[in-house]
Amino acid sequence: MTDSIESGAVTDGQGRNLPPLQLHVPEPPARPGESADFTHFDIPAADAAPRPDEATHPSQMRDFAYGLVRVLDEDGHAVGAWDPKLPADTLLRMLRYMALTRAFDGRMFRAQRQGKTSFYMKSTGEEAVSIGAALALSRDDMCFPSYRQQGILIARDWSIVDMMNQIYSNKGDRMKGRQLPIMYSAREAGFFSISGNLTTQYPQAVGWAMASAAKGDTRIAATWCGEGSTAEGDFHSACTFASVYRAPVIMNVVNNQWAISSFSGFAGAEATTFAARAIGYGIAGLRVDGNDVLAVYAATRWAADRARANGGPTLIEHFTYRVEGHSTSDDPTAYRSAEESSQWPLGDPIARLKQHCINLGIWDEERHAAMDQQLAEMVRDAAREAEKNGILGHGLHHPMESMFQDVFEDMPWHLQEQQQQMLDEWKAAGL
Ligand SMILES: Cc1ncc(C[n+]2csc(CCOP(=O)(O)OP(=O)(O)O)c2C)c(N)n1
Ligand SMILES: [Mg+2]
């Protein structure tokens, strides 16, 4: 039993005066109406990080969990040991895929506002995370993404009409309307079905990687989750399995500073980095400038080479910023400073690669503007094509009775009865 006394000290049953226990409740540095200040971030020079050998033991990797792997400096020059020295055509492909992802996001966001779909999630400012990784992985490596890695499908040249059909839940939707819009699944693109239940993809990716090794295959797995999602138990079980069996897997944490309305501090960012989670598990950890597509590429390539050589898993934290709302259901002006995205110290990933390509003499503003125009038209044409298959509320979805299909090879009698009952009730209601 304890009694509070006026001074705030507490006397316990044994007569000891003890300070009252307190909880630390994290508070974001800035709220709406306040100015954003990122000067406390320690951003090392772009050429500061050495590049360790891919076979380095995790115990020698400690500093990489607290530093920042970077390639592009403030002027858009590629510097330092991590420069992947990519050929011009690869750089321009990266630029195009990032710009296409942004154009796709813009069109689909507007489609939601026009009532054509119920939901959409943009990846604005985070395009480098998906595009850099997709180009560094082999086409047949298996990806277990979260809902903000649409760029992987785009960089694997998946049909954007097919993606839109899923967003519209129309009769062309391969998911037959059974998944929330943007929760794609594309086996042929090595893109595992997205789940709305945060971080379930983590143990699945590790399990897939373990199976690949158990079968003597050569393909590796990669997975992505947000920084908020690292608070899920699944993240930690996945790390344990990955470490114990040295699974050939790359575990990406996209630290975009925000979960929905809760800032990264609620997932532990005030105490340490997300890459440092790796240290406790004996996993190699890299912290990377997530707005630098060349750094993302170089780190992913390092981790992929390590996994392919049976060197085990790597945890990569991509330090980035979620420029827009969490989803179309969110309003970030209600909880964060409007200045944050413009004050973000690591810039915009597309602008940075564009500047780099201009510096190399392989690109210019005119070509960039022409590309943006061409991509906007391409996305508009794709949307028109997808809309022919139906949009929200226009009835062009898969037949209602199809919701009972694809679970059992032969539909059991009780489901047949329920299906029939549904159809009878619909008919009676004149629908
Ligand atoms: C298990 C579970 N808990 C909560 C939610 C609700 N939810 C959906 S997204 C989200 C925020 C996740 O933030 P983060 O992991 O940082 O990813 P980000 O959206 O920033 O990419 C939450 C809490 C959910 N979908 N699943
Ligand atoms: Mg987040």
TrEMBL record:
Output the SUPFAM superfamilies linked to this UniProt entry: Thiamin diphosphate-binding fold (THDP-binding)
Alphabetized CDD domains for the sequence:
TPP_E1_PDC_ADC_BCADC
Looking at the record, which segments are called Disordered? 1-38
**Keyword annotations:** Oxidoreductase, Thiamine pyrophosphate
**Cofactor(s) the record lists:** thiamine diphosphate
Say which enzyme class the record assigns. Answer: oxidoreductase
> Reaction catalysed?
N(6)-[(R)-lipoyl]-L-lysyl-[protein] + 3-methyl-2-oxobutanoate + H(+) = N(6)-[(R)-S(8)-2-methylpropanoyldihydrolipoyl]-L-lysyl-[protein] + CO2
EC number(s) from the headed UniProt entry: 1.2.4.4
What range(s) does the 2-oxoisovalerate dehydrogenase E1 alpha subunit N-terminal domain occupy?
A: 19-59
One Pfam annotation reads OxoDH_E1alpha_N
Residue span, Dehydrogenase E1 component domain: 96-391
**GO terms of molecular function:** branched-chain 2-oxo acid dehydrogenase activity
Task: Establish whether keyword Ubl conjugation is in the entry.
Answer: no
Q: Write out the GO biological process terms.
A: branched-chain amino acid catabolic process
Q: What does this protein do?
A: The branched-chain alpha-keto dehydrogenase complex catalyzes the overall conversion of alpha-keto acids to acyl-CoA and CO(2). It contains multiple copies of three enzymatic components: branched-chain alpha-keto acid decarboxylase (E1), lipoamide acyltransferase (E2) and lipoamide dehydrogenase (E3).
Q: Which family does it belong to?
A: Belongs to the BCKDHA family.
Q: What is this protein called?
A: 2-oxoisovalerate dehydrogenase subunit alpha
Q: Which organism is it from?
A: Sphingobium scionense
